[in-house]
Amino acid sequence: METGVHAVLWDMDGTLVDTEPYWFRAETELCAAYGIPWSDKQASALVGNALPTSAAVLRDAGVGLDVRAIIDMLLESVIEQVRQAVPWRPGARELLAEVRGAGIPCAMVTMSEQRLASEIVDLLPAETFEFLVTGDMVGRGKPDPEPYRIAVENLRAIRGDLSLDRIVAIEDSLPGLASATAAGVVTIGVPNMVSLPDGPGHIVWSTLEGRGVAHLTELVGAH
Question: What domains does the chain contain, in order, with CATH numbers?
Fold first, then answer.
Protein backbone atom coordinates (compact mmCIF):
# COMPACT_ATOMS: atom_id res chain seq x y z
CA MET A 1 0.00 0.00 0.00
CA GLU A 2 1.58 3.31 -1.07
CA THR A 3 0.92 6.01 1.54
CA GLY A 4 3.74 8.49 1.20
CA VAL A 5 4.57 7.94 4.88
CA HIS A 6 8.02 6.35 5.15
CA ALA A 7 7.99 5.55 8.88
CA VAL A 8 6.35 6.41 12.20
CA LEU A 9 8.34 6.98 15.38
CA TRP A 10 6.43 6.47 18.62
CA ASP A 11 7.07 7.91 22.04
CA MET A 12 5.87 5.54 24.77
CA ASP A 13 5.01 7.10 28.14
CA GLY A 14 1.98 9.32 27.73
CA THR A 15 1.69 8.65 23.98
CA LEU A 16 1.26 4.92 23.51
CA VAL A 17 0.46 4.15 27.15
CA ASP A 18 -0.83 6.47 29.87
CA THR A 19 1.94 5.63 32.32
CA GLU A 20 2.63 9.20 33.42
CA PRO A 21 0.41 8.75 36.52
CA TYR A 22 2.56 5.72 37.35
CA TRP A 23 5.67 7.89 37.23
CA PHE A 24 3.94 10.53 39.37
CA ARG A 25 3.11 7.89 41.95
CA ALA A 26 6.63 6.46 41.90
CA GLU A 27 8.16 9.91 42.40
CA THR A 28 5.69 10.83 45.16
CA GLU A 29 6.29 7.61 47.09
CA LEU A 30 10.06 7.90 46.75
CA CYS A 31 10.00 11.49 47.99
CA ALA A 32 7.67 10.55 50.85
CA ALA A 33 10.21 7.97 52.02
CA TYR A 34 12.59 10.88 52.58
CA GLY A 35 9.96 13.17 54.09
CA ILE A 36 9.81 15.36 50.99
CA PRO A 37 6.50 16.72 49.66
CA TRP A 38 6.08 16.21 45.91
CA SER A 39 3.29 17.87 43.93
CA ASP A 40 1.68 17.06 40.60
CA LYS A 41 3.06 20.38 39.35
CA GLN A 42 6.60 19.26 40.16
CA ALA A 43 5.97 15.87 38.57
CA SER A 44 4.48 17.48 35.44
CA ALA A 45 7.67 19.51 35.01
CA LEU A 46 9.59 16.25 34.55
CA VAL A 47 7.31 14.75 31.88
CA GLY A 48 9.26 13.73 28.80
CA ASN A 49 12.71 14.40 30.24
CA ALA A 50 15.58 11.95 30.17
CA LEU A 51 15.54 9.84 33.34
CA PRO A 52 18.96 11.07 34.58
CA THR A 53 17.63 14.63 34.37
CA SER A 54 14.50 13.76 36.38
CA ALA A 55 16.51 11.74 38.89
CA ALA A 56 18.88 14.66 39.42
CA VAL A 57 15.91 16.91 40.21
CA LEU A 58 14.66 14.41 42.79
CA ARG A 59 18.13 14.12 44.31
CA ASP A 60 18.39 17.90 44.54
CA ALA A 61 14.95 17.97 46.20
CA GLY A 62 16.33 15.81 48.98
CA VAL A 63 16.12 12.16 47.94
CA GLY A 64 19.22 10.68 49.52
CA LEU A 65 20.29 8.39 46.70
CA ASP A 66 22.52 8.76 43.68
CA VAL A 67 21.02 9.27 40.24
CA ARG A 68 21.35 5.62 39.18
CA ALA A 69 19.67 4.35 42.34
CA ILE A 70 16.81 6.82 41.91
CA ILE A 71 16.27 5.69 38.31
CA ASP A 72 16.25 2.05 39.38
CA MET A 73 13.69 2.66 42.13
CA LEU A 74 11.40 4.63 39.82
CA LEU A 75 11.63 1.98 37.11
CA GLU A 76 10.87 -0.83 39.54
CA SER A 77 7.77 0.98 40.74
CA VAL A 78 6.47 1.75 37.25
CA ILE A 79 7.16 -1.77 35.99
CA GLU A 80 5.24 -3.20 38.94
CA GLN A 81 2.29 -0.93 38.16
CA VAL A 82 2.39 -1.78 34.44
CA ARG A 83 2.26 -5.47 35.27
CA GLN A 84 -0.96 -4.84 37.17
CA ALA A 85 -2.63 -2.79 34.42
CA VAL A 86 -1.55 -1.28 31.10
CA PRO A 87 -3.44 1.95 30.40
CA TRP A 88 -3.34 2.27 26.61
CA ARG A 89 -3.90 5.77 25.27
CA PRO A 90 -7.10 6.31 23.24
CA GLY A 91 -6.64 5.36 19.60
CA ALA A 92 -2.93 4.56 19.95
CA ARG A 93 -3.04 0.80 19.46
CA GLU A 94 -5.58 1.16 16.67
CA LEU A 95 -3.42 3.64 14.77
CA LEU A 96 -0.32 1.55 15.39
CA ALA A 97 -2.07 -1.55 14.01
CA GLU A 98 -3.29 0.31 10.92
CA VAL A 99 0.15 1.76 10.26
CA ARG A 100 1.78 -1.66 10.50
CA GLY A 101 -0.99 -3.18 8.38
CA ALA A 102 -0.10 -0.67 5.68
CA GLY A 103 3.50 -1.89 5.72
CA ILE A 104 4.88 1.31 7.24
CA PRO A 105 7.82 0.63 9.57
CA CYS A 106 7.56 1.80 13.16
CA ALA A 107 10.15 2.37 15.88
CA MET A 108 9.78 3.33 19.53
CA VAL A 109 11.74 6.32 20.79
CA THR A 110 11.36 6.59 24.56
CA MET A 111 13.29 7.96 27.51
CA SER A 112 12.24 4.95 29.56
CA GLU A 113 14.87 2.26 29.77
CA GLN A 114 14.68 -0.94 27.78
CA ARG A 115 13.41 -3.11 30.64
CA LEU A 116 10.26 -0.99 30.98
CA ALA A 117 9.79 -0.53 27.23
CA SER A 118 10.03 -4.29 26.75
CA GLU A 119 7.12 -4.80 29.15
CA ILE A 120 4.92 -2.77 26.79
CA VAL A 121 6.33 -4.12 23.53
CA ASP A 122 5.80 -7.71 24.67
CA LEU A 123 2.04 -7.01 24.86
CA LEU A 124 1.90 -6.00 21.19
CA PRO A 125 2.01 -8.27 18.12
CA ALA A 126 5.44 -9.60 17.25
CA GLU A 127 7.57 -7.29 15.10
CA THR A 128 5.34 -4.27 15.73
CA PHE A 129 8.51 -2.19 16.08
CA GLU A 130 11.59 -2.51 13.92
CA PHE A 131 13.66 -1.56 16.98
CA LEU A 132 13.60 0.50 20.15
CA VAL A 133 15.60 3.59 21.03
CA THR A 134 15.51 3.82 24.82
CA GLY A 135 16.92 6.22 27.37
CA ASP A 136 19.74 3.87 28.34
CA MET A 137 20.91 3.73 24.70
CA VAL A 138 21.61 7.45 24.19
CA GLY A 139 24.19 9.87 25.49
CA ARG A 140 21.82 12.83 25.41
CA GLY A 141 18.12 12.30 25.96
CA LYS A 142 15.12 14.38 24.97
CA PRO A 143 14.89 17.35 24.41
CA ASP A 144 18.17 16.76 22.55
CA PRO A 145 17.55 15.46 19.00
CA GLU A 146 19.93 12.51 19.48
CA PRO A 147 17.23 9.86 20.19
CA TYR A 148 15.32 10.68 17.00
CA ARG A 149 18.47 11.05 14.93
CA ILE A 150 19.54 7.58 16.04
CA ALA A 151 16.10 6.25 15.08
CA VAL A 152 16.33 7.80 11.61
CA GLU A 153 19.86 6.44 11.10
CA ASN A 154 18.74 2.95 12.13
CA LEU A 155 15.71 3.08 9.85
CA ARG A 156 17.82 4.18 6.91
CA ALA A 157 20.24 1.33 7.57
CA ILE A 158 17.32 -1.10 7.38
CA ARG A 159 14.99 0.52 4.84
CA GLY A 160 17.17 2.73 2.66
CA ASP A 161 17.28 6.49 2.23
CA LEU A 162 14.02 7.56 3.85
CA SER A 163 13.06 11.24 3.66
CA LEU A 164 12.84 13.22 6.89
CA ASP A 165 9.74 15.01 5.61
CA ARG A 166 7.99 11.64 5.31
CA ILE A 167 8.94 10.29 8.73
CA VAL A 168 6.37 11.08 11.43
CA ALA A 169 7.03 11.28 15.18
CA ILE A 170 4.21 11.17 17.73
CA GLU A 171 4.86 12.79 21.11
CA ASP A 172 3.01 14.01 24.21
CA SER A 173 5.60 16.21 25.93
CA LEU A 174 7.48 19.45 25.36
CA PRO A 175 10.92 17.75 25.55
CA GLY A 176 9.66 15.14 23.08
CA LEU A 177 8.40 17.76 20.65
CA ALA A 178 11.70 19.63 20.89
CA SER A 179 13.70 16.45 20.25
CA ALA A 180 11.67 15.32 17.26
CA THR A 181 11.42 18.72 15.57
CA ALA A 182 15.15 19.34 16.04
CA ALA A 183 15.81 16.00 14.33
CA GLY A 184 13.85 17.28 11.33
CA VAL A 185 10.99 14.79 11.24
CA VAL A 186 7.30 15.64 10.88
CA THR A 187 6.06 15.92 14.45
CA ILE A 188 2.62 15.43 16.00
CA GLY A 189 1.92 16.46 19.57
CA VAL A 190 -0.92 14.70 21.38
CA PRO A 191 -1.43 16.36 24.79
CA ASN A 192 -1.87 14.18 27.84
CA MET A 193 -0.61 15.28 31.26
CA VAL A 194 0.72 18.62 30.01
CA SER A 195 -0.71 21.04 27.47
CA LEU A 196 1.12 21.45 24.19
CA PRO A 197 1.11 24.77 22.37
CA ASP A 198 0.74 25.16 18.66
CA GLY A 199 4.03 26.19 17.17
CA PRO A 200 6.41 26.01 14.25
CA GLY A 201 7.69 22.57 13.39
CA HIS A 202 4.84 20.52 14.79
CA ILE A 203 1.09 20.02 14.69
CA VAL A 204 -1.15 19.28 17.69
CA TRP A 205 -3.88 16.64 17.59
CA SER A 206 -6.20 16.49 20.60
CA THR A 207 -6.29 12.67 20.42
CA LEU A 208 -5.22 9.72 18.28
CA GLU A 209 -8.72 8.31 18.49
CA GLY A 210 -10.25 8.16 15.02
CA ARG A 211 -6.92 8.91 13.35
CA GLY A 212 -5.59 6.63 10.63
CA VAL A 213 -3.00 6.26 7.91
CA ALA A 214 -4.98 8.64 5.71
CA HIS A 215 -4.47 11.43 8.25
CA LEU A 216 -0.73 10.77 8.40
CA THR A 217 -0.57 10.71 4.61
CA GLU A 218 -2.38 14.05 4.45
CA LEU A 219 0.03 15.48 7.02
CA VAL A 220 3.22 14.53 5.19
CA GLY A 221 1.68 15.72 1.93
CA ALA A 222 0.97 19.13 3.44
CA HIS A 223 4.41 19.24 5.04
Answer: 7-18+88-222 (3.40.50.1000), 20-84 (1.10.150)
